[in-house]
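Extended Data, record DUF1471 domain-containing protein
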Amino acid sequence: VAHVSVSSINTNPESIIQLLQNKTEASGAHYYRITSFHIDNQSHATAILYK
């Protein structure tokens, strides 16, 4: 189990999802659960990765 945070200047939600998927794969985790997701002038999300 790990907590991660990602940010993007792109406000497209798919860009944050892609960043989370990349972090999940890079860490060797099998899936993630988004715990927060904010879109203002930029996007920000936090998630828990599960192995």
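Summary. The chain has a mean pLDDT of 94.
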